[in-house]
Amino acid sequence: MLFVNNSAFSLRVLGGNISSTPFPILIDERLVPGFQNNLVEPNPEAFLPTGPLKNMTPTSFEELALAAPIKRALAEQGYSTPSPIQAQSIPILLKGRDLLGIAQTGTGKTAAFSLPILNALHTNPQRPRRKSARVLVLTPTRELATQISQSFDSYGRHLRFKKTLVFGGVGKNPQIRAMQPGVDVLVACPGRLLDHMNEGDIELSGVEYFVLDEVDRMLDMGFLRDVKKIVAALPKKRQSLFFSATLAPQIKELAHTILLNPASVSIAPEKTTAEKVDQAVCFVDKESKKDLLLNHLAEQQGKGLTIVFSRTKHGANKLCKSINSHGFEAEAIHGNRSQPQRERTLTKFKKGTLPILVATDVAARGVDVKDVTLVINMDLPNEAEAYVHRIGRTGRAGATGHAVSYCSPEEHEFFIDIEKLIQQKIPVDISHTYHHEKLASLHARGIKSPESTRDNGSKTRKGGGGGGRGRQGGQNRNPQGQRRSSTPSGGNRRRRRRP
Q: Which pLDDT does position 84 carry in this prediction?
């Protein structure tokens, strides 16, 4: 029996005598009945091998039809072999097709869309329209927007193009001035972009390439309505790209409404954790978590960088203060810190001068640091999907990382959800003196702790610094993800300045 996974395809032979390792092939979609929409799984019987199959995926950047200046920039940075998401996506995007790309975090999605876009800007230079952009990259957080912007600079170092960033937490006037003559590339967060659009400072009629990055996180943070408003302002004729770490039904539905006859590339199984991350869980009383954390930080000294995740901004500040009082050096990053503060902290962390970063989920998608060797979930996330993205901060670029989660009786249901989502059992660490044997025994027998509550006595709040309008993504929204208005007409609202 044969299984084919969408457009740049992995063909796997099950129950046969051919190797079970997936290998990509290309298929003429016109020869496959009912395959006009690549988001619909075709009938596996339609794909039968008629002879030796060759791997048609590019094995080096030199094989890709990218402009010479881009290849030179890649070579200067030591990049020679594309990752699977890059090797399968770039040829499709160079042909001008829409794309839905699904890949694990840390697999190179940014290069997968930025390289073909830079190639298009280079081969078809045009003056952008005033107050508009030829390329719009929409992303949920400020950190991720900054990272994407840096990638465009890095890969396009030998090209001439104008680029700007638009997100909350910083002044509007520099963004307005940058957009006045128009830019080639605009990387933006939804909230601040809509502010500028409503005030007439930015218009999207000149957009030729639209990228919606980290779609799952965007929806988790309640930006669905904002995204739809932005998409409605885009020209009908454009190339649209979706990139996401997971593919939930709601994302498929959104893709159907925005993408036109898209190709679909799926590199990793849906909702799986990064393969090179060694995971462990410590069942522990809530009161013992801090002592256990200090033990782990002491063991980690000199072994690489550490990210400690806290569920709340207040908790992150409190935890950071405690860590520093015990002789370690840590700083916090979350939505209540100004953008300059967050950038200074991230710069020190990337340079290695700051060994410990305490973060809310604001950093789960925007921190790309190769030397992070340990992720500690001090608090388990309210949403199981966030666990995948948190631990994806380590084990990046082929390196091996470690992730340790502290689970108290109150959080047990969260941990059950996590194991259900990733479809694997996380090994239990019993080597510490704070091991909660009763909780471990209940979990081993599949029984939920009677102390477990979903809200854990705290308000469930999605996001954590969405970078839009200086507030968290899930804040000031009704259950349908729509922003509440303080006026009946939903008009202008006065916003308090962040202290």
A: 87
